[in-house]
Amino acid sequence: MLHSLFQIGKGGVGKSTLSALMALAQARVGKRALLLSLDPAHNQSDIFERSFSDKASEAAPGLLVREPDVNQWIARYLEDVQQRMRESYTYLTALNLDHYFRVLRHAPGLEEFALRAIYQDALREHAECDVIVVDMPPTALALRFFASPTISGIWTNELLRLRNTIKEKREIITRIRVGKKEVEQDRALRRLEEERDANAALRDHFADGSTTHVTVVMNPDRLSWMESRRILEALTPLGVTAERLAINKWTDAADLSSLPPELASMPRILLPSSDVPLLGMRNLTEYLDQHPVDAHQP
Which of 201, 42, 273 is closest to 135 using CA atoms? Predict the structure, then answer.
């Protein structure tokens, strides 16, 4: 069974470093791991001190790393939408749609849909892995990513209701006759039904605590705590459960006495500060030797 381990938190708290450590820890205990970066900052290339791309490459025995270009996936998504529109609405082929798609490139919401497409592609392409460790973007975009199937589901259901009303009125349905059998074709309706099912499947996937595991990453400071609490509040209505905290840059002097109750009650990982920058395979593995990371063994 493939497990997904998401690291979510405020920008700069150490999500990318923890993701790299967790992925390495999984590989070291014999798991087939994919480290998938959904952070447009491309931090994994910096951490491992080598270039990664959308094509998964081996960073260590048992560990693949994939760091896609989000802008390329946005362009691919728009091309796919444009092609589907041409197939579904052949009567629009006389119109020049390029202008409208240039406008659409700047529409809000494209980033989270691109991240969603990357993640779904990773689930399909790397089904043989035991675990996908997902390095998430900063909080706002990460939350929109988790919310995307719910929001898209609401929109799609409304479009389905509208489309079915049109179908009942027989306004744009194309009919063909095969022998004595009448067959209705409505590509737009079929595509909306497929999108509805895909939204429901991804929403259920995010809410499935047996395969989806979310770690909230924070630093031992009050500002980071407040952001982490807001993350928990935002995930709850989406049905997504954060299982534990990872406190990065931990020192013995850190005071957690004022930690909000909802955070204080969660299991936690303590990541001590490193004397050297955690860059390059040598420094990463030496840190794991000194401070074994509970890689959440599914």
Answer: 42
| Distance separating the N- and C-terminal Cα atoms of the chain | 9
Give the domain CATH number at 46.
3.40.50.300
Range(s) of the domain holding residue 282: 3-290
Amino acid 209: pLDDT? 92
Query: Rounded CA gap, 227 and 231, in Å?
Result: 6
What per-residue confidence (pLDDT) applies to 38? Answer: 94
Using DSSP, state whether 93 is helix, strand or coil. coil
Between the CA of residue 92 and those of 133, 185, 277, what are the distances in Å? 43, 17, 56
Q: Is residue 298 part of a domain?
A: no
Is residue 295 one of the residues assigned to a domain? no
Question: What does 100-149 look like in DSSP terms, one character per residue?
Answer: HHHHHTT-TTHHHHHHHHHHHHHHHHTTT-SEEEEE---HHHHHHHHHHH
227-276 tens-digit pLDDT: 999 999 999 999 999 999 999 988 887 888 888 888 989 998 999 988 89
- DSSP lists the bridge partners of residue 7 as 135, 215
Give the pLDDT of residue 173.
Answer: 47
Question: pLDDT of 212-221, one tens digit each?
Answer: 999 999 998 8
Look at residue 122 and tell me if it is in a domain.
yes
pLDDT of residue 191: 81
Residue 296 inside a domain? The answer is no
Query: What does DSSP say about strands 33-37 and 63-66: parallel, antiparallel, or unpaired?
Result: parallel
- Choose among 267, 233, 261: nearest CA to 247: 267
Is the model's pLDDT at 179 over the cut of 60? no
Question: How many domains in the chain?
Answer: 1
